[in-house]
Amino acid sequence: MGRRTRKRIRNEAYRRFRDAMIVEVGRCEMALLDPTHRVRMPLSTLQIHHIMRGTRRERSLTERCAILVLCCECHCKLHTGRKHWPEAAQLALLKLVRPLEYSLEKYNRLFAGPANRITEADIARYGEQ
Ligand SMILES: [Zn+2]
Ligand SMILES: [Zn+2]
Predict the structure, then answer these.
(1) Could you say which DSSP state residue 128 is in?
(2) How far is the CA of 70 from the centre of ligand 2 (A)?
C-alpha cells in the first residue's frame, strides 16, 4: 500500500471519528460556562478543537482526553484569546463537561513532555473559577 493510500485511509478514519464525536457530544462544550450561550446549536456549527499544539497535535488527533467540541464562534475565540485559555484551563473545562473522558495522566503520557508539566493542582485552580 502506497503512502498516499495510507494517508487517505487515515484522513478518512479521522473524518469518521470527528463526525461521530460531534454528533455524540451534540453541543458546544463551552456553553456550560456562558449563560448567554445557546445550548442547542446546529451540528454544522460544531468543530473539534485539539488542546495539544504543534507537532503533538498529530498524536492526539483522535484522543478524546485531548479534544473539546466547540461551536465555530467559541473555537475562534479560544484561538484568538489563547493566552486566556492555557492548556490547564482547557483541560479543566473538559473535566467539567466530560468527566469520564478526562484523564490528565493519559494526556501527559500522550504529550510526553517533562513529568508534572501540568498537575491536578493546576486543573483544580481553573476548575474553581
Ligand atoms: Zn482549535
Ligand atoms: Zn460555543
Answers:
(1) T
(2) 5
CA 9 / ligand 1 centre spacing (Å): 23
CA 33–ligand 2 middle distance (angstroms): 10
How many Å lie between the centroid of ligand 1 and the Cα of residue 56? 13
Cα of first residue to Cα of last residue in the chain, in angstroms, is 51
Q: Which residues lie at CB < 5 A from ion ligand 2?
A: 28, 30, 71, 74
User: What would the grid cell of residue 34 be?
Assistant: 456562558
- Cell numbers given for 77: 475565540
Residue 21: phi and psi, rounded to 5, are: -65, -40
- For residue 73, count other CB atoms closer than 10 A to its CB: 15
Interstrand relation of 46-50 and 67-71 (parallel, antiparallel or unpaired): antiparallel
Spatial CA neighbour of 129 closest among 100, 88, 99: 88
pTM, whole model, 2 decimals?
A: 0.90
| Distance between Cα 69 and ligand 1 center (Å) | 9
The string of pLDDT tens digits covering residues 44-60 is 999 999 999 888 888 89
Phi (first) and psi of residue 30, to 5 degrees? -85, -20
